[in-house]
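Issue: copy button drops trailing tokens. Both records pasted manually instead:
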Amino acid sequence: MAKKQSKFLQGRRIDPTPINHRTKLVDLVDSTFVAYNAARLREACWLFSQKMLEPDVTVGVTLTGALTPAGLGMSALIPLIKAGFIDWIISTGANFYHDTHFGIGLAMHEGNASTSDIVLRAEEVVRIYDIFFDYSVLLDTDSFFRRVIEAPEFQKPMSTAEFHYLCGRYVLERERKLGLKNKSLLAAAHEYAVPLYTSSPGDSSIGMNVAAKALQGNKLAFDPSLDVNETASIVLAAKRGLIRDGKPRRGQKGGRSAIFILGGGSPKNFALQTEPQIQEVLGIDERGHDYFLQVTDARPDTGGLSGATPGEAVSWGKVDPDRLPDAVVCYLDSTVALPIITAYALAKHKPRPPRRLYGRREEFMNLLLSEYRKSNRR
């Protein structure tokens, strides 16, 4: 009598197609990424392209680590925005600052990480691991931002989304004057009205220049409460079905929210805390984000937020417990994973119409305020 096969042996049989000179990236991922973190990267590609890009899903992306200096704004993030695959972003301020170098025509170079930093300092060369650039790049970018924030539209408190949208217009204009195209994430986000938030706006050279101008009487100030409430309102609007492509399917109610985390840190928490803000603080009925995708090199056992698992996020109300099967953590460098996920998604999924959420912030805030007024937390 034949032995009954264990239920644990229902997974796909490991039998990859041999790689040859005609192997395409999609086939490489689908066929040969069969185990360990290669399998997690395959699952990340599948989750992003098959579920997170559905018409009723709103995709938020978080960025930590020096991704834009490595060119990932140009190579991956801008193509994802243009395809309608990113709806809103939370990032470190440093990524937006270094992104601006490219948009205003400044150069970054490949370098050797073993070069003496004492020698580099003497040569006025700044290093981000193996990315080298002249010290004047910092000075010129500082000068650009100081001139920009002298404009009348900046003389008030504002959310970081409004700040980056206004700055993006100036970067886009500089790109056009220099004959550049698709170089700056800030410029692309302005063009496609993708809201860009910074969870710690003072923790970057942009914030340092804003602080310097404040000493001269400039009235620009970042309002963190606006950022907290605006990001929560985007998620609530997504879950209430206000952000979607086309009409809902028969019997479908509401919509879904997806968070794609590159790295971890403060932007990760700022994106995930939108659900506790809605549920715990504002007392609005909600269950958590529907899709959780993270690329990280951080371990969970050190207790840091960067390595915290989606299961742990469930305990805070950040992730819907019923959607844990739709959560993937890929322990890999973002500079490796993001280009592969981007190429895979662009090959497998047709573009989505841009949602242009920046222009709907007031609508979403009105929804948040309306539901908060009905809660028992006031």
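Record 2 (pasted manually too):
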Amino acid sequence: MKNIILTGYRCTGKTEVGKRLSARLDLPFYDTDELIIEKAGMSITEIVEKGGWDAFRLRETETVRELGSNSNCVIATGGGTFEALENRKILKQNGFFVWLSADVETIVERMRSDKKSSRNRPSLSNGDLVTECALTIGKREAVYRRLADLIVDTSNKGIDKVVDEIFTFLSCRCRKD
């Protein structure tokens, strides 16, 4: 089985969906942001404050390289992971991509209610949150869409419903293969 790669913007459910999906499939789970934090010994905000977004993106690509040789696992990626062509190539070689999408209002609501948001989701533009989300999603949407083997809108769904949709799709796909 290929790796299941969860991609999408911030607060679309990649980490929580990934944890539950990996448990349901009995596969290892990796979160690129969590691996970066663990290896660096500091939060994403601290990494960005000390070295800028470029320093974070370098760490992200190192992490993707390390995960690229894995098989049969679930990987949750950061929202901007696939801005780098190298990251897309590495994970697409052995990955089934699930794009978790959500509308801007849902994302902003989730970000504001998530206690970890400010520590692990530093501002990308220093602009207001709604505008930043809309602009960034607009910029990334073509890449997400191009990579996606499956698109799941998480806007009005709980984690279990999203996991069920992915699991059902994968089950049907495995029967066809």
